[in-house]
UniProtKB/TrEMBL annotation:
Residues 131-258 form the GFO/IDH/MocA-like oxidoreductase domain. It comes from the Bacteria. This is Dehydrogenase. Residues 4-123 form the Gfo/Idh/MocA-like oxidoreductase N-terminal domain.
Length: 356
């Protein structure tokens, strides 16, 4: 079977530490090209992987050399480049947040459908072993009715690991659109939807910039979320954690409490109401603190969907629903009111608008 020919658009940290090495070690992939507007950077990465270098994504997409691309650019380019790739008959793995609006996200979904190509969003928290085990326990009724939850994702900020440090696009409003909530919060809105098996319908939030005076986007956010069945909880996203990274989630149920990625050794701790405690050692969650490379399982899932012609593990529709929670949080913070989450928007005319 012919290998999937892949190009990576955007050669920043996420591409260098996740996408490129994971494509390289995938036996079904032939890495053929990289693209970045920074000529020095793209040439260096291209030389490292022995692939072709492009500074213009349109040239790559029209080259006829790739079957699929990863879009690892600043957020404001996600929809533009993804739609262009899909329209060129190329499968797309897009980093999160998938877009800067529901309209953009819907246009991406429509482009994938129209062209019969795969669109997957890089929400890797679904593939963490402890999260998958917790979802299974909840589905099996092991903890009974779920009452509430709390989840947090925080670290010292992108300046610690971004290739451009404090000058990174992550801190520029016009390029990032959203800060810690788009970088970290959207991962947790996706995780909660995955774990609980239901949608978040209402959000109240404080989305602030109070830790980094050089940032034009939010660096601290705390949200209150409510699901369709009435489960309530909190989500915190922060670029202001000076100690170790926090990537933990706790689910409080009728029969037990699930503690995820909170213990230094046990990635899942189940505390039953009977007093029994079960510890699961399922491997550590991915962390920016690692400083190295590891397997996020995102690339292997994306490639698998292409090779088997199956639906991607995280579809555009799923990405949109998780994005909608974050957009509702922004609106809530601005209006100082609880906000309903709307995940569906008409796409009529949007493709033409974005392509223009």
């Amino acid at each position: 079977m012919a290998k999937v020919k892949v190009g990576v658009i955007g050669c920043g940290s996420i591409a260098q530490n996740r996408h490129l090495p994971e494509y390289k070690m995938n036996e079904n992939v032939e890495l053929v090209a990289v693209c970045d507007v920074n000529e020095e950077r793209v040439n260096s990465v291209a030389q490292q992987y022995g692939v072709n270098a492009y500074t213009n994504y349109e040239e790559l997409l029209t080259s006829g050399t790739v079957d699929a691309v990863s879009v690892c650019t600043p957020n404001y380019l996600h929809a533009l480049i993804s739609i262009a790739a899909l329209n060129a008959g190329i499968h797309v793995l897009c980093e999160k947040p998938m877009a800067t609006s529901e309209e953009e996200a819907q246009a991406m979904i429509e482009a994938a459908k129209t062209n019969g190509k795969k669109l997957m969003i890089g929400h890797n928290q679904r593939f963490v072993s402890s999260h998958q085990k917790a979802r299974q326990l909840i589905e099996d009724g092991e903890i009974g009715k779920v009452y509430c939850f709390r989840t947090a994702f925080g670290h010292g900020g992108p300046e610690q690991w971004s290739v451009d440090g404090k000058e990174s696009w992550f801190f520029k409003k016009e390029e990032a659109f959203i800060g810690a909530m788009g970088d970290l919060g959207v991962h947790k809105s996706d995780l909660l939807r995955y774990l609980l098996g239901e949608e978040i319908v209402e959000v109240g939030a404080f989305v602030e910039t109070n830790a980094k005076d050089f940032a034009a986007v939010d660096d601290n956010a705390v949200c209150i979320l409510k699901t369709e069945s009435g489960i309530i909880g909190t989500l915190a996203a922060s670029w202001a954690y000076k100690g170790n990274e926090d990537n933990s989630t706790i689910i409080y149920g009728e029969k037990a409490i699930l503690r995820l990625e909170e213990h230094p050794v046990y990635s899942l701790v189940v505390q039953y109401a009977t007093g029994e405690v079960v510890n699961y050692e399922l491997g550590k969650i991915q962390s920016n603190d690692e400083g190295g490379q590891s397997n996020s399982h995102v690339i292997e899932q994306f490639v698998h969907s292409i090779v088997t012609d199956e639906e991607p593990a995280v579809t555009g529709e799923e990405g949109l629903k998780s994005l909608a929670v974050i957009l509702a949080a922004l609106k809530s913070s601005q209006t100082k009111q609880f906000t309903c989450v709307h995940e569906e928007q008409p796409a009529e005319g949007i493709l033409q608008h974005i392509n223009s």
